[in-house]
Amino acid sequence: MVQGLRPAVAKNLYEGVVIPAHPLALDASRKLDERRQRGLTRYYLAAGAGGVAVGVHTTQFEIRDREINLLEPVLRLAAEEVERAGKTDSFIKVAGICGPTAQALHEAELAAKLGYDLGLVSMGGLHDWSEADLLRRTEEIAKVIPVFGFYLQPAVGGRVLSDAFWREFAEIPGVMAVKIAPFNRYQTLDVVRAVCQSSRRDDIALYTGNDDNIVADLLTIYRVWVDGKPVEKRIVGGLLGHWAVWTHAAVRLLDEIKRARESGMIPAELLVRGIAVTDANAAFFDPAHHFAGCIPGIHEVLRRQGLLAGRWCLRPDEELSEGQMEEIDRVYREYPELNDDWFVQKHLDEWLS
Questions:
Q1: Which neighbouring-strand residues pair with 93?
Q2: Please, what is the average pLDDT of the chain?
Q3: Is the model's pTM score more than 0.90?
Q4: Residue 116: which of 92, 137, 139, 140 has the closest Cα?
């Protein structure tokens, strides 16, 4: 049976932290740029992130293709940088886990061997599986590595799952957190309600993956009636592709949100800023074109900062959509308080050395 989380990792997970979804640094030949891959991890560590998720959608699922074979290298490089920074005991390392049960177990074993704390278990690509099959798969993975559940929006390969599925999911021993990312308020509430109704409600941390609603998700108290009594639960932190950029500013934002939550007073300005964050996310994630430019959009911001050498993705046809560059220009111009360019420029040479 899998061991539990280390105390400092568990503390950070339940208190809520910024967990960026780690991009893939490539050179002009679309080969792994190890120097910049390490530089990105160093950036997230220095920016104050509480963890990092590697081998996830933002890292590009094609790293698993046999001819590319980059899953192990990117997991290993990030783990090495966390160890180098002396944060192994507290920094939350999350590994993406995909595919049918045999593949998923292989990836879980690899992540556990490399010292990862949790596996972010994607249901993507398994559209012909029953919900019962998905639950059994999760139970097997949880025997290898603690599970970070993942409600992935259909637009990027996920599927709609019933509230009954999430009620059973929350009862699985070894499920420690859930990333809620359906980009849908009704489906978000399905997950929160299921966790609140679970006997394990205090063992499961909720994280937003709703890049279109980050600030509001983090400010909200969810009150669910269970057996005639109110149960309250918060979304404590975020595991987000959006937080792969402007991460230092995201850490400051989460700290500000936590202070507001503790005071019981939610400043109207935070809600205004939440809309600005959503607007910036629309420029990066490209919902206008069904998220086709999502990964190149993230890469473009990192390229402008000097963290990446270019926007290259593993698929040559994966590029910015028409008008997306202009949208990124616009949000840079309109929301200068959201970026952390000054912080990156101050430390870039150090991270890339």
A1: 52
A2: 95
A3: yes
A4: 92
